[in-house]
Amino acid sequence: MQEAIIKRAKELLADGSVNRVIGWKKGEFVYDITPAVFETAEEIDADFVYNELTSANVSKYLVKETKKDGKVLVFLKPCDTYSFNQLTKEHRINRENVYVIGIPGGPKLDVEKIKAKGITGILNITNDNGTLKIETLYGEETMPFADAVSTKCENCKSKKHVVFDELIGEDGDITDTNRFEMVEKLENMTSQERFDFWRDQLSKCIRCNACRNICPACTCEKCVFDNPDLGTDNKAAADSFEENMFHIIRAFHVAGRCTDCGECSRVCPQNIPLHLLNRKFIKDINSLYGEYQAGEDTTSRAPLTDYTFDDCEASIVHERGAE
Amino acid sequence: MLKISKDRITEIFNTVAESKSLYLPVNREDGQAEFKKYENGMVLSENLNTLRSAKDFFFPQTENLVDFKMEGKNIEVIDVREECEDFVIFGVRACDARSFTILDKVFLADPVDSYYKNRRDHGTIVTMACTRPSETCFCGSFGIDATEPEGDAVCYTDGSSYFFKANTEKGEAFINSVSSLLEDGDTAELEKVQAKTKEILAKLPLSNLSTDSFGGEKLNELFKSEKWAELSEACLGCGTCTFVCPTCQCYDIKDFNTGNGIKRFRCWDSCMYSDFTKMAHGNPRLSQVERFRQRFMHKLVYFPANNNGEFGCVGCGRCLSRCPVSMNIVKVMKALEEK
């Protein structure tokens, strides 16, 4: 797949169709891959990489890149195309300045899940028919591929590209996953158990803002939490409860716009399952306003920014009860 | 050297914890280690390092500095400082131990930071020599020997026993407090393990990372490098690298209005953030390129310029593992080195 992608990128650069290419750049190790902009065939040949470890969703970089002169080529995995559509819908991406090639997606690997097994000194990782062979400073280790799959790929919502100018590889279908399983578990807890679960998780937060800054739905020019003139900024709170509120407020802010790309949980240095907050909103929106998938298209009106006579009343919260 | 067999280490912990607060790396559910206050039954983590560094012990992420109480036209200033109680941190790695020396240069230089000094004076650091360094380790580049860490006392392991050596008076006091549990032990096997670890250290993928191109005298050349724009391109401007870093020491001081008074607190700040060092005239670094450059210039140029050539990085590798876009000091150093 990497070869086909590189070949096409170089063709489009050579014939002048695009000026730049957004993709993934090799690192020091097999896994530390950085999103990058490539401008020449030489750069692409030297460093472009696409494999089971390129999990980053690069669609948010287009906010910045499509404001520049010239055209940029972007390779999007199925899940990334939802983010792309949502950003287009919100007028954050200049669609004319980007050429989209859909490429097959995951499941991607999370190297932290490999390291969590006590495997250290990683020099190389290869996939041998569902078994990972991990070459380390201390000898070879193996583990099932499935045990190292990134949390964001565990419940893949779609193998279908909802937007593209051309495709490399086959397009897939929207997948029927049980992505709300954990949300249901949380719903079935008592309110005290649920409170304890979230306090336990969110108290790990170090307020690094990685979740917010990676999030394709968080594209405010100036976040309220960063604005010292507003009195709402808190790069570290005097009260630990405020850290908890940060995540809940953020989840509210992206409700109806979050495509469930899972980047928040992927980048969290403290492994907080932040995506569960967003999934709860998605599940509620589905049940209260009818099935809706943010980023599926660029034209429909989103349930929370639309009004219909069938909308649920605010009293639904009371009717549903606290437990 | 004095030793205790591995399966009896909890006896040491229990003895220490009788008289002092003891902190040690413990594994969480997700397999990541973090420093926790020891309670009976806790198991020492075998992980190479904790997810967050050990700097919190002396320089916590947030701390209250002073309170103000207002009644009518009177403002009462309340000093919230209290003498800290003695505590022991067990299992600090060589990289983190060196980070304390670096933090000391900032907080114990005139004017002395009394909040930091208070905790530093009362803390005993027991380090743990490394036996399984990771591919992300590069402490050797900053003159650190992972098999021979600094610290008040050092603990070594040969796989079946833990050996102890004191470096300071505090370290001696620690060993004396548990000496009834220790016995004289043969170090032949330990020496073999140490030699083997040194071999691994020599062949780590980053073992050849050089600091030759950095230091105070390279200021102009590095500041003006054209590489910064490309290097910072993917940076999200989050604070992950600064917050997991054992040596990042920038902080902000803010007032929190409690309704009938003020809590003046300080909290870690990050040069990656848009309001970092914002002053009355505005912000000196308006773009992410400048903020990104600041972090690495501080560690590789400004800090050594002000501290006899000592770099502000200890090669712990946390930023390598944690950066959401895998951009880090090693990539920066390697890119800047290329002429």
Description of the structure:
The complex is a heterodimer of chains A (323) and B (339). Chain A contains 13 helices and eight strands. Chain A is α/β, with parallel strands linked by helices and 323 residues long. Chain A folds into three domains: 1-108 and 157-177, no CATH class; 111-148, no CATH class; 178-323, no CATH class. In chain A, β5 (122-128) and β6 form a beta hairpin. The longest helix of chain A is centred in the last third of the chain and has 15 residues, at 240-254. Chain B contains eleven helices and twelve strands. Chain B has helices at residues 9-19, 94-107, 114-122, 169-177, 188-202, 219-223, 227-232, 240-244, 288-306, 318-322, 329-337; strands at residues 2-5, 21-27, 33-37, 62-71, 74-79, 87-92, 123-128, 153-157, 161-166, 183-184, 251-257, 261-268. Chain B is globular and about 65 Å long. Chains A and B meet through β2 and α9 of A and α8, β11, β12, α10 and α11 of B.
Q: Give the CA-based shape of chain A.
A: globular
Q: Which ranges of chain B are low-confidence, i.e. pLDDT below 50, for 5 or more consecutive residues?
A: none
Sheet with the most strands of chain B? 8 strands, mixed
Tell me what portion of residues of chain B adopts beta-strand conformation: 15-25%
Helix content of chain A: 25-40%
Q: What topology, given as strand order, has the largest sheet of chain A?
A: 2-1-3-4-8
End-to-end Cα distance of chain A, whole Å, is: 48 Å
Helical/strand content category of chain A: alpha/beta
Give the topology string of chain A: H per helix, E per strand: HEEHHEHEHEEEHEHHHHHHH
Largest sheet strand order of chain B: 3-2-6-7-8-9-1-10
Instruction: Please give the alpha-carbon distance between the first and last residues of chain B.
Output: 49 Å
The total strand number of chain B stands at 12
* Percent helix of chain B: 25-40%
The tally of helices of chain A reads: 13
Mean pLDDT figure of chain B: 95
